[in-house]
Each structure stands twice: as structure tokens, then as C-alpha cells.
Design goal:
- The structure is a homodimer.
- Chain A is of the alpha/beta class.
- In chain A, 39% of the residues lie in helices and 18% in strands.
- In chain A, the strands form two sheets. Chain A has a nine-stranded mixed beta sheet. Chain A has a two-stranded antiparallel ribbon with strand order 5-6.
- The longest helix of chain A is centred in the middle third of the chain and has 17 residues.
- About 13% of the residues of chain A have low confidence.
- At the A-B interface, α2, α3, β3, α4 and α6 of A face α2, α3, β3, α4 and α6 of B.
- β3 of chain A pairs antiparallel with β3 of chain B, so a sheet runs across the interface.
Chain lengths: 411, 411
Amino acid sequence: MRAYLLGVGMTPFGRWTDVSLAELACRAARAALDDAGLDACDVRVAVVGNAVQGAIEGQHGIRGQLMLRGLEMTGIPVVNVENACASASTALHVATAYVASGLADIALAVGAEKMVTADRGRSLDAFEGSWDRADRNGTLRRLADFAAATPVPADAEAGAAHSVFMDVYAAFARDHMARYGTTVRQLAVVSAKNHAHSAANRNAQYRRQFTVEQILAARRVVWPFTVPMCSAVSDGAAAAVIASADAARGAGSSRAVGIRALELAHGGGWTGGHIDAHVSRRAAHRLWEQAAVGPRDVDVAEVHDATAIGEIQQIEHLGLVGPGEGGLAAEQGRTSIGGDIPVNPSGGLESRGHPIGATGLAQVFEIVTQLRGEAGSRQVHGARIAVAENGGGLIGLEEAAVSMIVLEAAS
Amino acid sequence: MRAYLLGVGMTPFGRWTDVSLAELACRAARAALDDAGLDACDVRVAVVGNAVQGAIEGQHGIRGQLMLRGLEMTGIPVVNVENACASASTALHVATAYVASGLADIALAVGAEKMVTADRGRSLDAFEGSWDRADRNGTLRRLADFAAATPVPADAEAGAAHSVFMDVYAAFARDHMARYGTTVRQLAVVSAKNHAHSAANRNAQYRRQFTVEQILAARRVVWPFTVPMCSAVSDGAAAAVIASADAARGAGSSRAVGIRALELAHGGGWTGGHIDAHVSRRAAHRLWEQAAVGPRDVDVAEVHDATAIGEIQQIEHLGLVGPGEGGLAAEQGRTSIGGDIPVNPSGGLESRGHPIGATGLAQVFEIVTQLRGEAGSRQVHGARIAVAENGGGLIGLEEAAVSMIVLEAAS
């Protein structure tokens, strides 16, 4: 893979009640272009990720063209992509394919989402109702099967109007606890660590620190999760400029970050209804092979902590820690900035925020910032190799999309 | 561009009330794989186009993963793309980029759409309401400006509950008539020709021939269009297998069709509100340059006749006939099978049907069938070079996406 990230940009994540999705997308795109030292007219293809504008705003078609009208990019291909919470990393994947193909020397990937509307209830309804509706009964049924094989603590709140996603993650957490002895306290430690990381991130939705005790005492979502252990409902946008080796040289940037490997995969039990529980692990195996480095070479990671258990699972799948060791690693401080394998220095989905169609590129924004040594007080010193993982959607108990990327600092 | 179409497949277009979108998509995909002599497990990336499932069925996320569950393709990337009526050709464009990049040697592009529901009214409402909502007032205002500069015949029906698309096409038609002397009769000739072509196409939604007089006398949609001059509301799916040169050789197929050039562009007046009326012409210019052949080399074409005027405009933009000559070319029989530049031998959107997220790949299905000499009684004899054009969405009066592809028969 010879492609480079020339520039990255993002809006702060949070509530942008009075700013349109288009304006958020343009702000992120302009920031990425400025960062790359390029103009909009230099872009040869734009790939735009969004997940819920159809459900929330009723704009189902040509979303990217409408979002990016504020930029002067007439004539180029605009490709609208969707892969649930992995929509932005899918945009990056497609944009990188265009660059690698030679069809474009400079590509713009954008992810943008507005989830918070004036009517908050409608926002959450639309989000939950839109998701995997055709499969939802199947998901819930298979979830029930899964949970039945797992010690399920009594939970008065389960089955209430929570997102099916939180229910599935809760089942994952209960399974992890039963199999590996992971504790609720460790989940709270992951959350406290991420909230502490984002205190220094001006792009984060939340910049408030919580003690482990505060997190344990917070309002419950579904056992074993309390609110600070779950990703937020957020607005925001993020973008990246991807360039060929020639274009990167031409731009003369000493800040270009190299793409060593990228993977996009889906699970979902397609093979005759069999649930493939290993899609992330298999993707990680191919990723490291492609990157010609291994998890021990990684200096910093951003992973998909839609809930605290998500971070624990994904750092295990990536091989950054051993199977079942994710919770302990957090408790030992290994995944904090200053530890041996810092995870989610941005604050992650739990605290930087999770505007779902933008998240994958926000992870890349953080990684690029770290690899350039520009992360200020949350800098992971000497970071040279980094990995980002972004998951999207559920089919049964499997991710419908999982994206992984290995990036390398300029030499 | 060294990429090949190894296989194509489609369902008949029409009304599939009792068949799910997923089943339609799988049927088309399986047909394309069978045609290529491949299995689903040979596919390295799947790119899936769909436009209105969110609006009509409430399935907003991970549509392709859910559609293709019937195939055994666990693990590969699935990319969901949308570009309104050009969604399927956008899927082909992205799939071809993956093949050209080396990230995949064999790619599957699928387009699928269900627009006809048991509640027909809801189908049309959803279709119209979903489209370019954010820009709709602007579109109508600019349409009014446009129409005001054009002799607008009295039209009692304009402004009624027709699709904004038909209104825009009607304005295009009135402008073409005023500028070039194109006649309503010529529009009817285009429609009659396409309906005659599809009489022999078992995949067509309509296989009934109409005389020019019958078409002129049919129920009016918006002046100057009657129903047979407008594309249908349709269900259906189409698919193609794209392969690298090595993979095409490996498959040992003598029926592979070469991709000589492909373009994807958008207009939409992005440059400071200026309407760029030439996006299709500029895309065509780049297309022929890339293909190293010209419009005079084309033996057969499929173009986006969402209405009869669409065909006339697009064959002019492609340079297949001179500016303003599209209507006359139809009247002289030049665009019929047997003429010097047969257009829409499948019957086009007007008669083969227009399940919008599937149309671009149905055009490619027809072209590949023609270039293989397998089109039976509607075969264009000796067809070696062909072009397909597929447009999608409107921003103001410009296409949000226009896709063009030049294909070449195996030598």
C-alpha cells in the first residue's frame, strides 16, 4: 500500500443544534485541505460517509454532493458510502482504493453526522428504529440464545427501551466477565481513563474527569453499563486527504503519514446461519501480515469503544494484549497515556463522542496528530506506529463492518 | 484501465411484490457469478448500490450486508454506496477502483431496488419526498428561473403532484424544442423505439409495442410527456463481476468484456452558485480521451432515458449525434436496432424499467450481452465498442452524479 495521509481535520464533537450537517462536513473538509496545504480544486475524488441523515432529516439521496456544495470541487466523482458506525472508515477505505488504483492522485474522505436534534426523543427513536430493522427480530432472538448460555445477572432494566446495541454489548460484557473474570470495576476504569484522556482534547464532547467510583455510581443504562461507559449521541464531522506517493512528494509535506495496511471486513454469520465470532481477529491477522509489523510494534491505538467492553474486546482482537487481558491492562494503567500501550488518547467514543458516520475519521485524526507529535499534553511520546479500529452495525452478534488501519509516522 | 467484466446478471424488472429486496439482490449476484464461472467465495470485495430502501422500507443501515446474506462471502469488505439513480453505476465504479488498486482481484457490484410496494401511493410519496429535500425549494426556484427564460406552453397539470424530476425533464424538453426545433412527435418516436426494442427483452418490465400515435394520445404526465415517454416505477436487481487482467485470464473466459474507460462526475453549480450546464459533456470529453476511441467508434449505447428527452440530450452530450440532432436521429431510425447508432436496445428506462438503484448495472448487462453477440433478436450485429451513461440526482438543474463507461468486446 503506497498511500499517504496528507491532511486531517475535524469539528469538535458535541451538540451543534444550530449548525447544519453540510456546514459541519465543509468545516472538517476545509480543515483537512488546509492541513494538507491543498485547495478543494486539487481533489480528484470525494468519498462521503453518513449513516442516519435519511432516518433523522429525511435526506436519503446524494448526501455528499449536498454536504460539500460549499467547496469548489465541480466535476469530480462524489461517492456516498454507508457502513453504520464504520461509515467514515469505509469512506477512507474507498478513497484509498481510488488513490491506489491510480484513478485519483488526491482523494478526500469525509464523515459527518447529526444525531442530536431539537427533539432529542426523535433523534434516539430514529437511530434505534433505523438499525438493522429487517434483522432485528433475528438479532434479539440470537441474543437471547447467546445470553442464555452465559450467566445473566438479574437486570430489571434489560428489555426496556435501550438501543439494541447496548443490549448486545451488555451480553458481550457478561460473557467476558464469566469467561475471563473481567470485573465491572475494570469497565469503569476503561471509562475513567478515556474521560481523563479527553480532558485535554479540545475536540472532545466531554472534557470532565470522573473517578471510578463516580462511574460505578452513575445512572445505569443496562447492566453492567452506566452512562459514562457508553458512547454519547453526538454531532460532528471529520475528514482526511489521501494522496499517492507522487502527490505526497509533490505537496512537499514533511508531515505526511503513511498508510501501512488497511482492512475492511464483515462477519454476520453468512455461512448458512453459522455465527462467525472471529471476524475482527481474522481481519487483524490479515492486517498485521499486510503491515509487516505486529501488535508489539504499536505505540498508540484508537479503538471502537462504543461501550467500555468494546475497547477491551478490540484490543484483544488486535493482539495488543492477550485474550481476556483487556480489563486487567486498563486496571494496571497499561492503556493510559504513559502506559506501554496507550488506547484512545482522544477519549474514544465514550468521551470524545460518537457521531456515528464521522467516528472512523476522528480516530484517524487523533492517530495522525499523535504520529506527528502534535497532541500536546495528551501526546504519546515517540509514537511511530499506530492502529485504529472502527466497527459498524450488527448482524446477529457479528459486526457488519470492521475497519482496521495501521499508520506510520513520516521518517 | 485494465479491468474486465467477467460476468453479468439481472432479475427481470417489474413488480416483485412477494419477493424481498435481499432475494432480488442475491438472484442477480448469483446470476453474475454463474455467468463468470465463479463462486461467491471467490469475491474479494462487494459494492452494493441502493437508493430508496431507507425511505420505503425503513432499512437505513448496512443494506448490502443484509441483502447478500444468502451468499457465502464471510469476511470480505462490503461497501454500501448511494448516488440516486446512478447508485448501481457508482457501485461499478468503486468496484473497478478496488480491482485497479490491487486491493481485490475479483469484485462484485450489485444494484437493487424495490419501489413498488403494496401501497403504491406510499411508494411514490416516499420516492418523491426523499429526493434532495434540502435543496428542493432551491431546485424549484431555479427551475422557475430556467423555465421563465424558455417558451413555456400553457400546462394545466404542471405544479400538480408529479415528481420534481419529471418537471425538470419537462423544462429540459421545452428548452430543447425551443432551441433546436425538437418536436413532441420526436419524443414519442424515442419512446416507441424503446418500447419496440424491449418487446424482445425477457428482462424488460414492458414488452408491449406502441405506435407513435398511441404514445401521443396516452395520459399526460407533464407537458410534453405522456406516460410511455417516462421511466417506470420498478423493482429489480442487476450485478456484475469485475476482474483484474490476471484474474480474467485465470478464469479462462473467452467472454470477458474489457473496460476501456469509465467516468463518474457531478455537477450541481458548486462554483459559487453558478450552474454548470456542461457536466455530462465534460465527462464525455474525458471519457473518450481515456478510452482512446471516439463516439464514431461506438456500435451500441445504453443511456439514461428517465424520459425521452433524457435519451436525446445524452446521445448529444456523448457526441453520438450532433447538438440538437437527437430527436431527428430517432425520427430517421438511426437510433433503432438496425440504424447506424442503436440506442437503448434493452428498451431503456422507459420500457425495460427503472428500479433506480439497479439501473446502471442493467445497462451494463445489456451492453455486455450485446458485445458477446448474445442478444438474440435484438442483437446489434458486429457490436465491438459500446458506451453506457447513467445519471443520478439533481442539484439545481444539474446532475448530482453522471457515470459513463466504454466497453469493448473480447478480441
